[in-house]
Amino acid sequence: MLPLTRPHRDDVLIAVVGLLGGAVLWLLGLHMQNGRLFAADWVSLLPLVVMSALELARRSAPQTALVLGTLALVADQFTSGNLATLLMYTDLMYAAVLYGSPAAARRIPVTTLLITVGVTIGFVAWFRDAQALLVGIATGLVSFLPALTGVSVRNHRNAAETARLRADQTALLAEMDRTQAVTAERARMARELHDMVANHLSAIAIHSTAALSLDDAATSRDALGVIRENSVAGLAEMRRLIGLLRTGAGDPEPSSSPTLASLDALIEQHRTNAASSGLSCTLLDERDGSGPLPAPVELAAYRIVQESLTNALKHAAPGAVTVRLGQDADRLTVEVRSVLGERPRPRAPGSGAGLVGMRERVALLGGVFEAGPGAGPDGSRVWRVRAELPVDERKVGP
Q1: Could you report the per-residue pLDDT of 31-89, keeping only the tens digit for each?
Q2: What pTM did the predictor assign?
């Protein structure tokens, strides 16, 4: 049965034009054949009307319309015939291949080819005349040629749809890559900003709290000196970062980034900032000096030490803060230990972003990161930060 769906407007136009065209041919007395079983001219209008109605279902039910259209075409052979009926049948054959199922699109051209060959051989054998080939040619023009055209158009549409889907997929992947790149760059900028400024701001926060809470002129003067020193240094770091963002946005690790050679100055600055908190800092460089390290590794190691010292300044109990560097053929080891316990002096608030940033830096390089409480050499409780970074550039992550 034909589905009761609203036909496409193009199908309605084809049906109306076919019906009116066939009616004009009938009125003009233009018939395709004579001497048929039903000689009355009006009988040829019945297949014409049926074929026009089937055109309304050429998209919604193409295979059903083709089967019924074939029956109508066979019935038309017993009448005086109408050219419009034949032309509309070729359109139903074309639509059955174009809008039908993939299996029908494969099966119909093969079937019509076999029918064309069979009709040609049969009529040649029956009439034993070369003119019987015209019957086979007519059969091919009515059935095989429209089916072949439908296959060509369908393949072209499928190729165009595949190309469109591929273009949409490529655009989607490009947008995902862009989003990931923006996210990664924002995360890198956040790590740089935190690591560059947090140390100075922590020192400012601690010493300003001490200056406000202790009614001692000498202590306040010393605190103000440390505050000024760290504010100037923090401002310089901010200006450097802004300069890098303006001029070196495409450089993943700027050439002006700090290296492990700058650790002595960082340790000295930490000693100054932490003197009033009872913290002492020691650098143990146990590397064998086997050669220069990749720039990303040096920057990550420096930032890990810097952030660990900042955390010690904010949270560690009075005592020793030890920074140890070790290196073998494959890895650079960075370890920072500080005393874990209560502190009598003011402490600065923490957000946990420092540990997240250190973990991200190590993960990007394909290293191993650990942070948490542990036991010191003398059995005391310490907070230990340990990172292992690959020194072979081929093993360094993106």
Answers
A1: 887 767 777 888 989 999 999 999 999 999 999 999 999 999 999 988 988 999 999 99
A2: 0.54
| pLDDT tens for each residue of 19-28 | 999 999 999 9
Distance CA 274, CA 255 (A): 30
Q: Which residue bears the tokens 């700027």? A: 254
Query: In order of start, what are the domains of the chain with their CATH numbers?
Result: 9-170 (no CATH), 259-398 (3.30.565.10)
- Do the Cβ atoms of 372 and 349 come closer than 8 Å? no
Q: How far is CA 12 from CA 15, 55, 137, in A?
A: 5, 7, 30
* HEC secondary structure over the chain: CCCCCCCCHHHHHHHHHHHHHHHHHHHCCCCCCCCCCCCCHHHHHHHHHHHHHHHCCCCCCHHHHHHHHHHHHHHHCCCCCCHHHHHHHHHHHHHHHHHCCHHHHHHHHHHHHHHHHHHHHHHHHHHCCHHHHHHHHHHHHHHHHHHHHHHHHHHHHHHHHHHHHHHHHHHHHHHHHHHHHHHHHHHHHHHHHHHHHHHHHHHHHHHHHHHHHCCCHHHHHHHHHHHHHHHHHHHHHHHHHHHHHHHCCCCCCCCCCCCHHHHHHHHHHHHHHHHHHCEEEEEEECCCCCCCCCHHHHHHHHHHHHHHHHHHHHHCCCEEEEEEEEECCCEEEEEEEEECCCCCCCCCCCCCHHHHHHHHHHHHCCCEEEEEEEECCCCCEEEEEEEEEECCCCCCCC
